[in-house]
Design goal:
Largest sheet: 8 strands, mixed
Structural class: alpha/beta
Order of helices and strands: HEEHHHEHEEEEHEHEHEHHHHHHHHHH
Number of domains: 3
Low-confidence stretches: 1-49
Oligomer: single chain
Number of strands: 10
Helix content: 55-70%
Number of helices: 18
Shape: rod-shaped
Distance between the termini: 29 Å
Bound molecules: guanosine-5'-triphosphate, magnesium ion
Mean pLDDT: 83
Length: about 625
């Protein structure tokens, strides 16, 4: 069974074949568990040759991988998912030795020489054009399996092994991509073949780095074509040089086997032990067929799967930490935003006092002028004037209230304009702050935290924009005028209606004045006027003063509390819009932290499996 196709990677999980149209079932945990327990027909071939001990370890390891997969799936990280599935699949496959290297380094020749049969074509130009899997079979046969070329060879020692020949990595980008995506992930060991006739190239070094660092694969370097060395001395320095170069590049001592496929082939075909010994193939064959014993291969599989899964755990934790960090940052921004909103609102409400205080001083001046006027008016000398209500009203308007009328109108107009402007500023600057601090992510993901966050950030922005449109600053200005009118109505008992406020106040006070002076407007009273006038004057001054004071208090408290209400309302609406985002962060943070704790637990499980695989039976 060829396991080396990218397509298959997506269709198959843990040895279970799932039709392409039913990939949704892959998320079903039951299916995975059934497969783990080995009831599935796709049970790995190598299970048959595993001892009970290793079968158990592999089973446990796969359960851990399954749990890790569940965590990764939640993150919707396709790359991590793909890598985890690859490692899990490689546990199901036979032990795979994958030959990788640039073209004409002798990969196919080495495999032919190993087998002692011309199984693969070789040549000086790019020759291998397709991945070729060599495995044990009753007879020599070439078959196509799932888009792979498979050659079966009846050699007992191939049992339990896949030997994989690949096209030169530098032939085409497409080949290179297939190799890196499909074949390297499945390799249990990579035989990186270098031609001795030239130095290690930059592209070779990059590929080695990728195999080692991205996939943590075991690499054995085959320095092929050592027959090009003129003598033992040149051969020695060639090997030393390559070893040093690899060590310098990758920081670790390379496992290097110097070979000559040509000498091995000639040695084998001519039964020339001298050539065979010079070919270095004895060491190579000993490594493949003895050192990599059946048990060692299984142990290596378990070990590298654990190591790789551990590195995926670390990457998963990194992604989780990134998300958790992101939430904290965003929450901090939202808190800052809340504080900013509070302080802006408080500032606006505080600034309203400049207007209310001006209203107070206008009305206090009005009060002073009014009292002076009453004091002057309610004298015995004015006894006839006091009987002329119209004249008094006119005079009062002219001397006391005319100035207040226009001042009060102007003050109220200014306050309305200021309120509208403040409301607009509050709404615009909150939206602006939001847009600057809550940036949506650019990601192709269609599920997961980043996708959900971006969607929600966008929804909240739209909601804030809708709110901004819905809150009409002109309505707020209108509310303010209404509250001032309400104060007049409650203190002076006049329904102001749509009348200009200043005029209303003045007319109300004019009639108040007429009322309090009107007591003298009868002949009978006139007779006693001399006696009662001082008291009446005092009473009138007092009543006028206290009415103006009451108006001042009512008007200021009415207007102030209206402003407080309006701007608190805006604040509540803005905070309400942010609520879905806050709630999302709260639940996500819990979810992600729990997942992080679970991944941490999986790490100890995988570490333990790795240690158990170290103990030889
Ligand atoms: N001198 C010498 N030549 C070798 C040796 N091994 C292979 N060659 C030659 O190198 C050339 C390439 O050999 P292949 O086995 O086709 O190399 P490959 O790496 O499979 O090449 P591609 O399939 O194209 O990637 C052929 O001409 C071989 O005869 C060797 O050990 N010594
Ligand atoms: Mg080849």
């Amino acid at each position: 069974m060829c396991q080396f196709t990218a397509r298959k990677l997506h269709y198959k999980l843990y040895g279970l074949y799932v039709p392409s149209g039913r990939r949704d079932v892959l998320s079903s945990p039951q299916i995975l568990i059934i497969d783990f327990l080995g009831y599935n027909s796709g049970t790995p071939e190598n299970m048959q040759i595993l001892g009970e001990k290793y079968s158990k370890i592999i089973l446990e390891e796969k359960l851990l991988l399954q749990s890790l997969l569940a965590e990764i799936k939640e993150l919707s990280d396709k790359e991590l998912e793909y890598r985890l599935i690859s490692v899990s699949e490689s546990l199901d496959n036979l032990f795979s030795i994958v030959f990788i290297g640039e073209f004409s380094t002798g990969k196919s020749s080495v495999i032919n020489a190993l087998l002692g049969e011309e199984v693969l074509p070789k040549g000086i130009t790019p020759t291998t054009d397709e991945i070729t899997v060599i495995k044990y079979g009753d007879r020599r046969e070439e078959i196509a399996e799932n888009g792979c070329r498979v050659i079966t060879v009846p050699q007992e020692r191939l049992k339990g092994l896949f030997i994989v020949d690949t096209p030169g990595t530098n032939v085409t980008i497409e080949q290179h991509e297939r190799l890196t995506q499909d074949y390297i992930p499945k390799a249990d060991i990579v035989f990186f073949t270098i031609g001795a006739e030239r130095a290690v190239t930059g592209s070779e070094a990059r590929l080695i780095k990728f195999i080692k660092e991205s996939w943590l694969k075991n690499i054995v370097f085959l320095l092929n074509k050592i027959d090009v060395a003129a003598d033992d001395q040149e051969l020695g320095s060639l090997i030393r040089h390559t070893r040093d170069e690899l060590e310098r590049s990758f920081g670790v001592k390379p496992h290097l086997i110097p070979v000559s496929a040509r000498l091995a082939w000639e040695g084998k075909t001519a039964s020339d032990s001298e050539l065979l010994s010079r070919s270095g193939f004895e060491a190579l064959e000993q490594y493949i067929f003895d050192t990599l014993s059946e048990e060692e291969r299984i142990r290596m599989k378990i070990r590298s799967a654990s190591e790789f899964a551990l590195s995926l755990c670390a990457e998963t934790e990194k992604v989780l930490d990134g998300h958790i960090g992101r939430i904290s940052e965003d929450m901090q921004r939202l808190d800052e935003y809340g504080k900013k909103l509070d302080s802006m609102k408080d500032e606006i409400v505080g600034n309203a006092s400049q207007f209310t205080e001006r209203i107070r001083s206008r009305l206090l001046e009005f009060k002073t002028r009014g009292i002076e006027y009453i004091d002057e008016l309610m004298r015995f000398a004015n006894i006839f004037k006091l009987m002329n209500k119209q004249k008094i009203a006119k005079e009062f308007e002219y001397r006391v209230s005319r100035q207040t009328v226009s001042e009060l109108e102007k003050d109220l107009d200014a306050m309305v304009i200021w309120t509208e402007k403040s409301a607009r500023t509050l709404l615009d600057s909150t939206l602006d702050f939001y847009n600057r601090s809550m940036k949506p992510d650019i990601s192709s993901a269609t599920t997961g935290f980043i996708y959900d966050r971006t969607r929600l950030v966008d929804t909240v922005r739209k909601e804030l924009e809708t709110k901004r449109k819905a809150i009409d600053p002109a309505t707020l200005g209108g509310n303010l005028v209404d509250s001032a009118r309400g104060a007049v109505a409650s203190v002076l008992g006049v329904q102001v209606g749509s009348l200009a406020l200043g005029a209303a106040v003045v007319s109300a006070f004019s009639s108040l004045l007429v009322d309090i002076t009107g007591i003298l407007a009868t002949v009978a009273v006139m007779a006693t006027a001399f006696a009662i006038l001082p008291r009446k004057r005092r009473d009138a001054m007092k009543e006028f003063g206290s009415k103006v004071d009451a108006l001042i208090e009512e008007m200021i408290s009415g207007v102030s509390s209206q402003i407080e209400r309006d701007f608190s309302g805006i604040k509540i609406q803005v905070n309400d819009s942010l609520l879905p985002l806050r709630n999302f962060y709260k639940t996500e943070k819990e979810k992600l932290s729990e997942s992080r704790a679970r991944v941490n637990g999986l790490k100890s499980g995988l570490g333990e499996i790795r240690e158990r695989a170290e103990l030889k039976s």
